[in-house]
Amino acid sequence: MSGWLPAYGTPMGEAARAVLVLAIFYTLVVAVEIWHRRAHPPIEWTRKMVHFGTGLLACAFPWWFDSPWTLLAVAAVGGAPIFVARARGGLQSIFGVERRSFGDVYFPIAIFILFAVGRHTRVFYVVALLTLVVADALAAVLGRAYGKHAYRVTTEHRSLEGSVVFMIVTFLVVHLPLLLATQIDRSACVLMAFQIALLVGSFEAIGTQGSDNLFVPLGAYYLLLKLTGKPLEAIGIQILAQIAILALMLLVSRRTHFFSFSGAIAAHLMLYAAFSLGGPAWIVAPALALTVAMVLEQRRVARMRRPASADHDVAVIFYVSVVAVLLIFADNSFSTMRTASAGLLSLHPFLGPYVGSLAGAIAIVAYLGLESSPGVRRRSPGWRALASGLIGFGVVAPLGLWATRGTGVRVEFATAALLSALALVTFLGLRRAFTRPPGTGWNLRYLALAVLGATLATIPLHLHWIQSGVWARR
User: Fold this and answer.
1) Are residues 308 and 413 in the same domain?
2) What dihedral do alpha carbons 277, 280, 282, 283 form, nearest 10°?
3) Range(s) of the domain holding residue 82
């Protein structure tokens, strides 16, 4: 291509390649739309054809473009007519699905972010993109054609067969490029491919409304960076730990009917994130929170005198744990920053807010349980708030902090107490200020917003306590 196009990286080179990419993209979209109107193939096929072709085109971007701004301009020029057609009900070959999906929005966002952060590690960029482009397309088509064992993900349905296809294809599209195009040890290539297939396969299994188009490639790229250079033994331990956590959550789902199948997968991802990014001790707090939630649910079901139903799915796990998961990633990222002070790094600065966010979420869950209990609902809201706060904080925080750092947790203990109390108060304030019909899921949204607001309000004070040195630790 360099023989008949302007030089790579020059303004004329960027512009010429942008025009070429737009021409190829529009040719693909028009051809698929003509095929849809004349032959009437299944819309899933035409959607995946555009998805697959665009993804393969995007694999060449690191060799074609030098600047992310060029790609952003291409996305704006190429995407504007597409979104206008969507708003007007056109391009049924892409937008004619019955389910609500934002995959066409998430996909270009994922490509842009992946290009911006990964264009200089070209093999990893291509591998991460192929996990979505190839694996997702084959899983969707084959799962729809041969899927016999369905499971529910909120309002959508997936098949076990499609999920298995996704994991197998992901293993291949990760393993083969790493083996053929990098100097990574062969055994490490196998283990890395297996680990990534298991993790991003879990993301894909619970992704709704096209969100897997964003999380799968970015998650794959993140894992490639994290796993490269790790000893084989460390990768093996991570794989065994994840399999054990997944098996345990599926067993809990089967025995207690607390989770749906997708809820069990989501819970295992949360617990594994705590184990992998924080450390084995970080799994204690979410495990305690999960135990309290199950006990409260069993008591609620017993009062209602009807069989338990597996209604805790992906959405429930997401709203309850999203802030805690973000804090795990923040702590892990902070710990790898070379510019931060060694003393602060060794303390895991987000441990206290992490445990406090879980304690606050369970305190809110406990309040909702007490609110529906005939023997307790006559009590004042203040009494119920105090009781639920003691349940959430008392069960989750002391053992969760002690398991991580022993007795030197006075800062974290104070932070967790403040955060959980503030989260509960904020939740009650949100419900009073913005009433919504019961059973619409707004309690979960208010829960997540309350925990997030309490966390953002508490973290500056927490970091000040750590840096001031007022609280002796050891």
Assistant:
1) yes
2) 110
3) 1-98
